[in-house]
Amino acid sequence: MKKLETREDIELLVNTFYQKVQKDETIGFFFNDVAKVNWNEHLSKMYKFWETLLFGQISYKGNPMAAHFPINEMVAMEKYHFEHWLKLWTETVEELFTGVKADMAVYKANNISQLMAYKMEMARRLS
């Protein structure tokens, strides 16, 4: 198994993950039907996002939380959706990579999924 070390590795990870997401019965519809994601744009953002998180390259500029609130208003993004997202992410990381950065990718994704699930639930309760 290869270590997660380069921008090209991030691109492979993100592309492989989102290929799964697009076909996924549990969360794919958020991307395909609700948000109607422009995949070229989204993938480019995700490369930068993960490169920033894992390598400290400050290439991502944006607010991931703010991007999810409008989707959550259309269709509730619930805890089990984020848990499923995390499961797919973890499987993809573990299929492709090993080492400290791979472990960090899973750890950070776990934190992201928990925070996003909490924030989306709070937003629904307050609306």
From TrEMBL:
<keyword id="KW-0479">Metal-binding</keyword>
<dbReference type="InterPro" id="IPR001486">
    <property type="entry name" value="Hemoglobin_trunc"/>
</dbReference>
<keyword id="KW-0349">Heme</keyword>
<dbReference type="Pfam" id="PF01152">
    <property type="entry name" value="Bac_globin"/>
</dbReference>
<keyword id="KW-0813">Transport</keyword>
<dbReference type="InterPro" id="IPR009050">
    <property type="entry name" value="Globin-like_sf"/>
</dbReference>
<protein>
    <submittedName>
        <fullName>Group 3 truncated hemoglobin ctb</fullName>
    </submittedName>
</protein>
<dbReference type="GO" id="GO:0020037">
    <property type="term" value="F:heme binding"/>
</dbReference>
<dbReference type="InterPro" id="IPR012292">
    <property type="entry name" value="Globin/Proto"/>
</dbReference>
<dbReference type="GO" id="GO:0046872">
    <property type="term" value="F:metal ion binding"/>
</dbReference>
<keyword id="KW-0408">Iron</keyword>
<dbReference type="GO" id="GO:0019825">
    <property type="term" value="F:oxygen binding"/>
</dbReference>
